[in-house]
Amino acid sequence: MLLIRGARDTDIENIRLIYNQGIEDRIATLEGATKDEAYMRNWFETHQGRYQILVAEANGEVVGWAAINPYSSRCAYDGVGDISVYIHRNWRGKGVGSQLLQKLEEAGKEYKFYKFVLFTFPFNKLGQGLYRKLGYREVGVFHNQGLLDGNFIDVMAMEKLL
Ligand SMILES: CC(C)(COP(=O)(O)OP(=O)(O)OC[C@H]1O[C@@H](n2cnc3c(N)ncnc32)[C@H](O)[C@@H]1OP(=O)(O)O)[C@@H](O)C(=O)NCCC(=O)NCCS
Question: Domain N-acetyltransferase, which positions (predicted)?
Fold first, then answer.
């Protein structure tokens, strides 16, 4: 039984552990270096108000998280949220990401976001499965958009009108 709830500062360490798994697995982000506690605390503190962080809890254990990040500092883009979703390695492919993202969309609508965007790797099969299932549209692929371990990586932009 999963519980989806707002993140508390006592969740920061578990959020960090799950984020670092995504970084180490080289399937989710162009971030190359794992994150320390200070980085994660600062990230948590910048995610207040409408920039929500949700966690998924199973049997009292945090097994995944999702967040709305600012897309742009320009006020014209105030209603566009950039999203992140990370699930613990042992819990991927079990429906946690779907439940988290659905709740994140509800939270986004409450806070007057009209669109979510995300940037993902075209080879991230589970990510593609999740986003397409929930109705995210492929906007396009940036070729050689970023460097990871010295190699160019393509990045796919996706969007959903909420
Ligand atoms: C990507 C991620 C967030 C998806 O969350 P998840 O909990 O694993 O996804 P779900 O179990 O909800 O699956 C979503 C859909 O993907 C599809 N899917 C499941 N397993 C799949 C697989 N092995 N290959 C392709 N598609 C798959 C299914 O359509 C599934 O929905 P369904 O089971 O109702 O049919 C998660 O796997 C993860 O954290 N990965 C590492 C970090 C990451 O890549 N984050 C995203 C950065 S863009």
Answer: 2-162
Tokens describing residue 67: 């967040």
Averaged pLDDT, 60-86:
97
**Beta-bridge partners for 87:** 64
Q: Classify domain 2-114 at the CATH class level.
A: alpha beta
CA 89 – CA 108 distance, rounded (Å): 26
**Contact (Cβ atoms closer than 8 angstroms) between residue 139 and residue 157:** yes
Residue with the smallest CA separation from ligand 1 atom 16 is 129
State the average pLDDT over residues 107-125.
Answer: 97
Count the neighbouring beta carbons within 10 Å of the beta carbon of residue 114.
Answer: 12
Residue bearing the CA closest to ligand 1, atom 1: 127
d(CA 84, CA 1) in angstroms, rounded, equals 23
Residues 19-57: tens digit of each pLDDT: 999 999 999 999 999 999 999 999 999 999 999 999 999
CA–centroid distance, 75 to ligand 1, in Å, is 32
What is the dihedral angle through the alpha carbons of 83, 9, 97, 25, rounded to the nearest 10 degrees? 80
